[in-house]
């Protein structure tokens, strides 16, 4: 049974296997609102076209840890040698003429664009919004996997939402547990039940 669960989880989270170290670009920019690994890293190679987020304003901010996880999921290795906490990706037309440093972008606040789409959770309670990059933990007896995906909707803590695997394109259900984090697998229902019981 454990082997079957592991195989199912591996299939769910399947993505391309690549390899190679990459370096963060001095001034990451994108031109079309779809941010890819190639927009952020030099040396991304075949993974350059992998979409890791969407920019709806003049800039988008990624937590360094999440960026590392997305790169690792695509088989790339970013060591973050300068210890950045955040990385800012700007619209190509709005980027400064002189190359800025990622370290300077680390202090920039995350944008909070208004969204007109219907919400599934009240804004005050929402911890995950549509198009957020989410780190999902899949837990089952003897199995623990981590995948980075994109939220297909909004969710409050303990609420179910759909997550799209950025590598395979598959959509699966998870339960929001914290800002930018969710749980999938048999453990997700337990977390959801406990959250509603706490209310």
Describe this structure in words.
There is one protein chain. This protein is of the alpha+beta class. The radius of gyration is 17 Å and the shape is globular. β12 and β13 form a beta hairpin. 21% of the residues lie in helices and 32% in strands. The protein starts with a helix and ends with a helix. The chain has a five-stranded mixed β-barrel. Strands 2-7-6 form a three-stranded mixed β-sheet. A two-stranded antiparallel sheet has the order 1-4. The chain contains five helices and 14 strands.
Order of helices and strands: HEEEHEEEHEHEEEEEEEH
Overall pLDDT metric: 77
Query: Which value, in Å, is the CA radius of gyration?
Result: 17 Å
Low-confidence region ranges? 97-109, 114-121
Number of helices: 5
Class from helix and strand fractions: alpha+beta
- Overall helicity: 10-25%
Proportion in β-strands: 25-35%
Distance from first to last alpha carbon: 34 Å
Biggest sheet, spatial arrangement of strands? 9-10-12-13-14
Q: Can you tell me the overall shape?
A: globular
**Biggest sheet statistics:** 5 strands, mixed, barrel
> Strand tally, please?
14
Short description:
The chain contains 5 helices and 14 strands. With 199 residues, the protein is of the alpha+beta class.
Fold blueprint:
Elements: H1 2-12, E1 23-24, E2 29-30, E3 34-36, H2 37-40, E4 41-42, E5 51-54, E6 59-63, H3 64-73, E7 86-91, H4 102-105, E8 126-128, E9 133-140, E10 143-151, E11 155-156, E12 160-165, E13 171-178, E14 181-184, H5 186-198
Parallel strand pairs: 2-7, 9-14
Antiparallel strand pairs: 1-4, 3-5, 6-7, 8-11, 9-10, 10-12, 12-13, 13-14
């Amino acid at each position: 049974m454990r082997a079957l669960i592991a195989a199912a989880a591996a299939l769910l989270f399947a993505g391309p296997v690549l390899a190679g170290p990459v370096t963060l670009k001095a001034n990451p920019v994108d031109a079309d609102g779809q941010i890819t690994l190639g927009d952020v890293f030099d040396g991304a190679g075949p993974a350059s076209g992998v979409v890791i987020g969407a920019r709806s304003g003049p800039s988008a901010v990624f937590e360094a840890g999440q960026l590392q996880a997305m790169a690792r999921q695509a088989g790339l290795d970013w060591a973050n040698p300068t210890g950045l906490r955040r990385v800012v990706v700007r619209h190509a037309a709005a980027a400064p003429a002189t190359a800025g440093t990622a370290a300077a972008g680390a202090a920039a606040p995350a944008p909070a664009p208004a969204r007109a789409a219907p919400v599934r959770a009240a804004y005050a309670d929402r911890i995950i919004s549509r198009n957020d990059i989410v780190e999902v933990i899949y837990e089952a007896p003897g199995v623990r996997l981590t995948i980075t995906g994109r939220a297909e909707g909004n969710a409050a803590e303990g609420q179910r939402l759909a997550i799209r695997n950025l590598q395979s394109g598959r959509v699966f259900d998870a339960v929001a547990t914290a800002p930018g984090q969710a749980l999938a697998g048999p453990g997700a229902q337990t977390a959801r039940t406990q959250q509603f019981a706490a209310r």
